[in-house]
């Protein structure tokens, strides 16, 4: 189809504002999917997405629509995730589009991630069509939503299309706006064909399937193409698009999105953000998207050590489909061989672990999540530490810099006091307080990344009864009093339980871990001491009492000294056993402690 009749657009919004439901209605209105085949959340292919009601992967789909002016248009839609942990999916999807539908919930208004996604879209120079969704809800407040679009996002409120994806209201108006308000794709004018790789996945039969947006020229089966990043030249075997299932086509032309297969068997050869061009007359590289930097690190180990190679293959295939995931090999005395994986956030980490369990059938255990610290050494060098096991000797460290994030928390006005105390409890400082409307306030604060890792998001939701929302962005590094907390069992350091914590919180965390370990470590023939230590100083201790055999059971009658003599003999034996005995901590104990910590 000629480029004048092609429109590429994305759907962006805060989590749970109705993106996927709207995409279902668009598929229905354009006749892309027949009513009998249409399911709820049709584009969410994973069970995990349907269960949690969130979009994890961006899903491309090609639709054909005959507009009111009688012309037939090709609409390439990419449905994107809303959660902050999948912002990389959103930025990659936007780079393959000319415009975006911005969905705002008529009842909840503009939320934290709505703001973040709009900034992403405007940075890439996209045209934005605002849509106020869920107007059928009894507590929908359309004037408020229009006002917020103007006040917070500087988008004219009267341009917004009123819709209800659930009831099918305003769907044709949205399609007409896409056709008339968005620009058609323009070729770059390079000397040969160019295509941007914006995603990829692994297919058992076809190998690596590459998702592309053609920016110049055309792609056909049988052509030789060069991947600029790896320098590899391959022959295209098949080209096609999605509706939403993949189907083959004769060619992909300028402005079209689709997929190509080229007998690529190893995931490492394809890099998301790379450019495909002519090997004989290569064009320059297309502006891709910035390299993503992981924010949270965690070790992933197979529960059965024989599964190590299988886990390695599984993570490589998953990385192809989720380019925000990074990994490298590591080993632990307690857990054997495994991988140190980097994630964009805690939800991202949780989803990756769940996908490894479900899609690849792996039994895995994950260590306590941590962030990357910069160590300023006394000799003037800088050292990055993402694992407490690799922390240098404190005597050689001049200062420790921890990553800080700038967080935007939107909360109902009545919860502002509780929210401020939560932020200060997490070592955060409030920069500004902004009133959004009569009901809600936005707090902008600086807070250590380490503090928002575990329960910060959950606490916001429980304080605000589900009405609060949060978004964050990296805000550099700051010197902090971090200490390494070691757990000792029978005077032996257990590296798997070591963590870097702030000096003020080390004691309480040490007590909590020691209490948990006391529950899960089985009793031995001798007394086992569980200690939490910072350097050489013990800050918490629990004791697992010994299993004691009743040695006086065979002693009938007689003088008390006979019993005392037997008990003294047992005491000596226990003392000797403790000096040479070692405590075997079962795998289940590690799993239990890491689950709760």
Description:
The structure is a single chain. With 597 residues, this protein is α+β, with helices and mostly antiparallel strands. It folds into five domains: 3-181, 3-Layer(aba) Sandwich (Rossmann fold); 194-277, Beta Barrel (Elongation Factor Tu (Ef-tu), domain 3), CATH 2.40.30.10; 296-366, Alpha-Beta Plaits (2-Layer Sandwich), CATH 3.30.70; 374-480, Alpha-Beta Plaits, CATH 3.30.70.240; 484-596, Elongation factor 4, C-terminal domain (Alpha-Beta Plaits, 2-Layer Sandwich). The chain is built from 13 helices and 29 strands. The strands form five sheets. Strands 10-9-14-7-8-13-11-12 form an eight-stranded antiparallel sheet. Strands 2-3-1-4-5-6 form a six-stranded mixed sheet, sandwiched between helices. The longest helix has 21 residues, at 560-580. The two termini are 56 Å apart. The model is unreliable at 41-53 (pLDDT under 50).
The CATH homologous superfamily of the largest domain is termed P-loop containing nucleotide triphosphate hydrolases
Q: How many DSSP H or I helices?
A: 13
Strand arrangement in the largest pleated sheet: 10-9-14-7-8-13-11-12
Q: What about the largest sheet?
A: 8 strands, antiparallel
Q: CATH topology of the largest domain, what is it called?
A: Rossmann fold
Number of domains: 5
**What is the straight-line distance between the termini?**
56 Å
- CATH top level class name of the largest domain: Alpha Beta
> What is the global morphology?
globular
**What is the helix fraction of residues, given as a range?**
25-40%
Rg, rounded, reads 29 Å
* Mean of pLDDT: 77
Strand content: 25-35%
Poorly predicted regions: 41-53
Number of strands: 29
Label the structural class.
Answer: alpha+beta
Any idea what the CATH architecture of the largest domain is?
3-Layer(aba) Sandwich
